[in-house]
Amino acid sequence: MKGSFAKLILLGFLAVPITTAKAWIPFVLDSGDQQISLLELYTSEGCSSCPPAEAWFSTLKNDPGLWEKLVPVSFHVDYWNHLGWPDPYSSEDYTQRQREYGAQWRSESIYTPEFVLNGMEAHPMEGNIGMISSDHLPGTLKATLQSDGSLRVAFLPRKPVTKTLIAEVALLGNDITGIVPRGENAGRNLHHDFIALALIRCTLEPAAASSMEEYKGTLILPSHLKVPATALALWVRSADSLTPIQAVGGWMKSA
Predict the structure, then answer these.
(1) In the chain, which end has fewer C-beta atoms inside a 10 angstrom radius, N or C?
(2) Cβ proximity of 241 and 118 under 8 Å
(3) Is the backbone of residue 3 left (phi > 0), alpha (psi -120 to 50) or beta?
(4) What angle do CA 125, 44, 112 make, to 5 degrees?
């Protein structure tokens, strides 16, 4: 595939204050060769069985494997919205992402809370997710954030690539709390961490000036979000599969 594309998914927050980050503090994220796992949680504020899963997800902030072995991302789906409370963090695109996973597994249904670890359905609350380790060496994924909000992505695979590579970047909100007035969680004060506020995609292209088989792309991070982004998650995959090849993530701050 020639050329590049970028797709931005921003949640549509109506009648809600918008936070504007004028600039980001530059930093560099580097995965190294060893695989870092991507852990996704599909959840909703309208689901009464989701708060325990989200509470467990929040404990990952104190896990020694955070960012070193594990990158967590929480996607709020929208199929609970018609049952009394429209989740303000939900997105139809995140629901579609979960459905695509279901199709990839040939599963008959999707549900919340549902965990996905490296592209496969998982039950991490039953074990110590912080002990995840892998001998797989997919290659090095690097992200360089500039003060203007541009994110330069570079992936150097260990093996030759035969398919188009896609980079996906999620801006994450943390320590988000709020009382749900209606629905299954009516009256509960919910707490969220690693919540996807925006999801951006771009095609990675071979680096023409490099003798190594490195793939690069550049994205512009959004500055208008409901709440400030405090972390960033990045992963690379082939265009025909949601399963991540390599991931990287870290804390970030806005200037």
Answers:
(1) C
(2) no
(3) left
(4) 50
What distance in Å separates the CA atoms of residue 38 and residue 255, rounded to the nearest whole number?
A: 28
Cα(31)–Cα(138) distance, integer angstroms: 10
pLDDT digit string (tens) for the chain, length 255 residues = 334 444 555 543 333 333 444 568 899 999 999 999 999 999 999 999 999 999 999 999 999 999 999 999 999 999 999 999 999 999 999 999 999 999 999 998 999 999 999 999 999 987 755 445 567 899 999 999 998 889 999 999 998 888 999 999 999 999 999 999 999 999 999 999 999 999 999 999 998 755 568 999 999 998 788 889 999 999 999 999 999 999 999 999 776
Cα separation, 193 vs 60, in Å, equals 9
Using CA atoms, how far apart are residues 219 and 148, in angstroms rounded to an integer?
Answer: 11
Could you please report the per-residue DSSP string of 38-88? Answer: EEEEEE-TT-TTHHHHHHHHHGGGG-TTBTTTEEEEEEE-STTTTTT---T
Structure token digits, residue 175:
């320590």
Question: What's the pTM value of the predicted model, to 2 decimals?
Answer: 0.90
**Dihedral sign of CA atoms 216, 155, 101, 124 in order:** negative
| Side-chain-facing half-sphere of 114: CA atoms under 13 Å | 20
Reading the block at residue 190, the tokens are 């919910």
